[in-house]
Amino acid sequence: MREAGGGVKVAKNRLVKIAIRDTSIRGISDLFVGQSLIVYSDSPVIAPKISVSFSNDNNEFRVLGGVVEKGVLNQDS
């Protein structure tokens, strides 16, 4: 991910929920349950593309949702 200009962070779910509580992306807070990673990039394509590719090769890793600009996406989107 770093080579593609993105990054990965492990964060405490409770702290993420507090941080996004009063923002336009608060709808994603329900996804922060259990072990969670925040994967990000400046490009709206790079992080999802690499995450889905990694998920296809690793059964324990699942993409639950994301944020593109200010829009919240989930598996149904």
Automatic annotation (TrEMBL):
Record-linked InterPro entries: Ribosomal_uL10, Ribosomal_uL10-like_sf
Pfam families documented for this protein = Ribosomal_L10
Secretion signal span: none
Sorted alphabetically, which Gene3D superfamilies does this protein's record hold? 3.30.70.1730
User: Which intervals of the chain form a coiled coil?
Assistant: none
Listed transmembrane segments: none
What's this chain's function?
Forms part of the ribosomal stalk, playing a central role in the interaction of the ribosome with GTP-bound translation factors.
Family under the similarity heading: Belongs to the universal ribosomal protein uL10 family.
Indicate what this protein is called per its UniProt record: Large ribosomal subunit protein uL10
Q: Which organism is it from?
A: Liberibacter asiaticus
**Gene name per UniProt:** rplJ
